[in-house]
Write a structure and sequence with these properties.
Length: about 290
Amino acid sequence: MKEILKNLFILKECKIGEPSSTIYLLNTNSEDGLILIDTGFGFNFEEEMKKIRLNPENIKYCLITHNHFDHIDGCKDLIKFNPTMHFYIHVNDAEDAELFINKDQQINFKITDTFREKKCTLKLGSYKIKCIHIPGHTPGGMSFLSTIDNHKVLFVGDICGGANAMDGNYEDFERSLQELLEIKADILCDGHMNVIQPLEEVSNFIEGCQKINNYLHIGFHLDPKDSTNWYNLALVFYQLKIYDNAYDVCNYLLKLNAENTKGKDLLKKILKHDPPKNEGFERILKNIYGQNL
């Protein structure tokens, strides 16, 4: 548990390489109770919230950034604490979210509220939360913007992951990232890289995510054997301190060209941070190209 601002906390922090997401908690100090942004994966809400003298039964709203498992898994536990909890997700991501949450579970989880417009505002306690559709990583990606303790705070789920190779859209995400950049948030609460501040750092991070989206589009859909592109991607991941992805991409680069000097030098720098190895990018490429890779 970490306090970011008055009434705003990290309930669960995502660590590099962990198959989960950061969970943010906003206390409205009103009859609207507690608000969660995303639910992580495999998190024990009852045990962890007891440590900070909060009751999960008081979570009345859950705002979901998108439908990937590492952001929505906790919904199946939250519904047990408060059957009347409001779960918000964009309509384009709702069906897949329900299918995943109900998989192998003895529950009948239902999304209670769906976003259908480009922008809308929720008024919860004294907070106005602007809900902004940012498609691209998934069709129903969402961001949430609010003024908290005199700071413009922007919540996002996975903007450093580019347009998802299966159901994402490069052009949509390009536009969405530019829109997020133009918000000029003081604090970015990211689903995987946690809290980024001040404004200059937020802008640098989003600009880095724009580069990632571009390099991933080239690598996944235009030229999977362009070693210069994979080096550029690994370098941006490294600069943004996303060391597990930097390691993964750099390893793939060196499979393409074992004598790539810049790649070998970058790998040495990455290994100083002891990142986990997962070979996720190569798996995605094999799913796309099969034996033709």
